[in-house]
Specification:
By secondary structure, the protein is an alpha+beta fold. It has one domain: Alpha-Beta Plaits. Helices cover about 35% and strands about 35% of the residues. It is built from four helices and four strands; from the N terminus they run E-H-E-E-H-H-H-E. Strands 2-3-1-4 form a four-stranded antiparallel beta sheet. It is globular and about 40 Å long. The chain starts with a strand and ends in a 7-residue tail after the last strand. The relative contact order is 0.31.
């Protein structure tokens, strides 16, 4: 069963450009992981500093392996200096999917 992680994190708008290289590295490393189907960030058009997160993983085991990846701890280590806060992520287990 595939899983989806979706939600948001916040960064002060004035720190977005300094945060961008960290996001780019995290995207590249996560997308290269076995079992990663989709990994993306999007800046909210109406709410400066709100970053929308969307991930799709082959299965829970792939997501658990992602949690142990070295780049994840490096990613989180960058947060305090850049003011990253208000992390709100939810895991969804996908029983099936139908193209619309």
């Amino acid at each position: 069963m595939s899983v989806i992680v979706a939600g948001t994190v916040r960064v002060p708008p004035e720190n977005l450009e300094a945060f961008r290289p960290h996001m780019t590295r995290m995207l590249a490393a996560s997308r290269a992981e076995d079992g990663c189907l989709v990994y993306s960030y999007a800046l909210d058009v109406e709410d400066p500093g709100l970053i929308r997160v969307f991930e799709a993983w082959r299965d829970r085991a792939a997501l658990e392996a992602h949690f142990q990846a070295p780049h994840l701890s490096e990613w989180r280590a960058s947060w305090p200096a850049l003011g990253v806060s208000d992390r709100r992520l939810t895991l969804y287990e996908v029983a099936g999917e139908t193209p619309l």
